[in-house]
Design a protein that fits this description.
The complex is a heterodimer of chains A (123) and B (248). Chain A is of the alpha/beta class. Helices cover 40% and strands 20% of the residues of chain A. With 248 residues, chain B is an alpha+beta fold. The chains are: A alpha/beta (123), B alpha+beta (248).
């Protein structure tokens, strides 16, 4: 899978900057939390988002709440979501997968790990 | 396969085909000879084939080496990218709270720290204030309770005293790393990394670069932000005072 437009939903400015560099061949849309992410997705110009990178721990609306909203929306339910977990425990990642995420990534992660997970989505 | 009767017509055609095959073989031999390095000729002893196989093995070896180099290059790019972004974010704001938040983001997102404390000496340098921390309520040593650190961990104490970056294990310390925060040669505090996420068993060699970067940039970024914040506050107070005087 080679995504063209990626929505990054994360409250870390540092990670947004890193994703910008890691995904320099894609258009990256930035959202600071789940509420912001839903607003960005609702915009017509973002109808072609083909991958979502989602942090699990965020203020206002966390990753699981965002996932529930996405999966309930028929138009967006098919967009693959990679959840990014901060916790050392697997629980967060498992909850994300159960809620409909396609894959997960644990912080801290390397460039090649992100690309491998994205590649794995097409396998 | 059915046997064909050897008539003059059939034998003539076979001879023609044989002649044509011989011509093609001659052309191929000439072509092969041209492609061979000077002094080498493909022979029945297989020396040409052996050379080709040798060259193929060389190419395969080169390909493997290039693949290793590419992987190393990608890792280095990833490391440099993290260092660049960390530096960029530390100096991207003049808001002290945001600088502290960036230090926390570096600790969590790039180092994988589950438990850490950002310590700054108080005025009389008898204790440190915990200006930022995560997971400290679960610290088994309980050295950071009440938002203060009065000493007790040998590695953190040594770093606070001499401003040298230390990475554990160190006797008398449960910390994994103690990063000095230094401004113009004076150690003003330290970042103590106390525990990593369970999936990251230890600090990696490349983490040392990030710790060095934090030691070099975190304190100065925070110091600059605090100075700016204080100056800005004073400036606004003065402006309000001037406005009041003008109105009066």
């Amino acid at each position: 899978m080679k995504p063209k437009k990626v929505l990054v939903v994360d409250d870390s400015k540092l990670l947004h900057k890193i994703f910008d560099l890691m995904l320099r061949n894609c258009t990256v849309v930035h959202a600071g939390d789940g509420v912001d992410g839903l607003e960005k997705l609702a915009k017509a110009e973002n109808a072609d988002v083909d991958l979502i990178l989602l942090d699990m721990n965020m203020p206002r609306m966390n990753g699981l709440q965002f996932l529930a909203q996405i999966k309930a929306d028929k138009a967006k339910a098919a967009i693959p979501v990679i959840v990014i977990t901060t916790e050392g425990k697997e629980a967060d990642a498992e909850r994300g997968i159960k809620a409909g995420a396609s894959a997960y990534l644990r912080k801290p992660f390397k460039n090649e790990e992100l690309l491998a997970v994205i590649e794995g989505l097409s396998a | 396969m059915t046997a064909q009767k050897l008539t003059p017509e059939v034998s003539g055609e076979a001879l023609n085909q044989l002649q044509s095959l011989l011509d093609k073989a001659r052309e191929l031999a000439t072509e092969l000879k041209e492609k061979m390095p000077p002094g080498k000729t493909p022979g029945r002893d297989g020396s040409g084939m052996a050379e080709l196989q040798e060259r193929l093995a060389d190419l395969e070896s080169d390909r493997k080496q290039l693949s290793i180099n590419l992987a190393e290059h990608e890792q280095q790019t990833s490391r440099l990218m993290n260092l660049y972004v960390a530096t960029y974010q530390l100096h991207a704001t003049l808001d002290p709270a945001e600088v502290q938040s960036t230090v926390a983001e570096i600790a969590v997102n790039l180092l994988g720290a589950e438990r850490f404390a950002l310590l700054f000496w108080t005025g009389d340098e008898t204790e440190c204030e915990v200006t930022l921390g995560q997971g400290l309520q679960d610290d088994p040593a309980g050295l950071f309770s009440g938002g203060k650190y009065v000493g007790g961990d040998s590695m953190i104490d040594a770093t606070l005293a001499d401003g040298v970056l230390r990475i554990g294990p160190v006797a008398g310390s449960t910390a994994l790393a103690a990063v000095p925060l230094t401004v113009q040669g004076t150690t003003v505090g330290a970042l103590a990394i106390l525990k990593l996420f369970d999936h990251k068993p230890s600090l990696r060699p490349e983490d040392r670069e990030l710790l060095d970067l934090l030691a070099a940039h975190a304190a100065s970024a925070l110091f600059a932000a605090r100075v700016y914040s204080a100056t800005d506050r004073k400036l606004k107070t003065l402006e309000n005072l001037v406005n009041l005087l003008r109105k009066g």
